[in-house]
């Protein structure tokens, strides 16, 4: 686990909260305590420029590169008037360098195993195992190597 990943997991510790947030800020990383993060988070290139909005959930084994932004598509509208509810990044997703996942209304879901290419601007939900790229992002393919899901419990 990288230093930045371990700091992100420790950002909620009552005694370490403030020093950890300050250390993350030195790396240019903004991950509020309200962000829910599953196990196995991987942050490459020290996450420089990584910004996550508080209304975000990251699933298990998510990979984030430097410069990734997850947040609102309409920051000029006051928060109380915004219709954005939540952004959900499901398990095994890879957000490449400079990717932007921005939501205007409702819940935006990045499907399990999706890859969002470098500098892509994703503004809508994706299905599982899709590959998105471009500005605005469009689906350019699907993953053949999507990790198998765990069997459902009966």
Verbal overview:
The chain is 12% helix and 31% strand. With 154 residues, the chain is mostly beta strands. The chain has one domain: UDP N-Acetylglucosamine Acyltransferase, domain 1, CATH 2.160.10.10. The chain has a six-stranded mixed beta sheet with strand order 2-5-8-11-13-14, with no helix packed on it. A four-stranded parallel beta sheet has the order 1-4-7-10, with no helix packed on it. Strands 3-6-9-12 form a four-stranded parallel beta sheet, with no helix packed on it. It is globular and about 45 Å long. The N and C termini lie far apart (33 Å). InterPro entries: Trimer_LpxA-like_sf. This is Serine acetyltransferase.
Q: In terms of structural class, how would the helical and strand content be classed?
A: mainly beta
General form: globular
Sheet with the most strands?
6 strands, mixed
CATH architecture: 3 Solenoid
Tally of structural domains: 1
In CATH, what is the class? Mainly Beta
Q: What fraction of residues sit in β-strands?
A: 25-35%
The named CATH superfamily? Hexapeptide repeat proteins
* Total of helices: 2
User: What do we call the CATH topology?
Assistant: UDP N-Acetylglucosamine Acyltransferase, domain 1
Read across the widest sheet, the strand sequence of neighbours is: 2-5-8-11-13-14
Structural Rg: 15 Å
Alpha-carbon distance between the two ends: 33 Å
| Secondary-structure element order, N to C | HHEEEEEEEEEEEEEE
- Number of β-strand runs: 14
Helix content: 10-25%
The residue ranges in which pLDDT falls below 50 over 5 or more consecutive positions are none
What integer is the average pLDDT? 88
């Amino acid at each position: 686990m990288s230093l930045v990943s371990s700091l992100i997991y420790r950002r909620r510790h009552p005694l370490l909260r403030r020093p950890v947030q300050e250390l993350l800020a030195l790396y240019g990383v903004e991950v509020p305590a309200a962000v829910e993060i599953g196990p196995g988070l991987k942050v490459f290139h020290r996450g420089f420029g990584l910004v996550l909005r508080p209304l975000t959930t990251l699933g298990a084994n998510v990979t984030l590169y430097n410069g990734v932004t997850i947040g609102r598509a309409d920051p000029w509208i006051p928060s109380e008037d915004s219709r954005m509810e939540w952004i959900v990044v499901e398990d095994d997703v890879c957000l490449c360098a400079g990717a932007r996942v921005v939501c205007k209304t409702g819940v935006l879901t990045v499907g399990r195993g999706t890859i969002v290419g470098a500098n892509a601007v994703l503004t809508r939900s994706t299905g599982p195992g899709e590959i998105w790229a471009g500005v605005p992002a469009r689906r350019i393919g699907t993953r053949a190597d999507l990790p198998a899901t765990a069997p459902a419990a009966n």
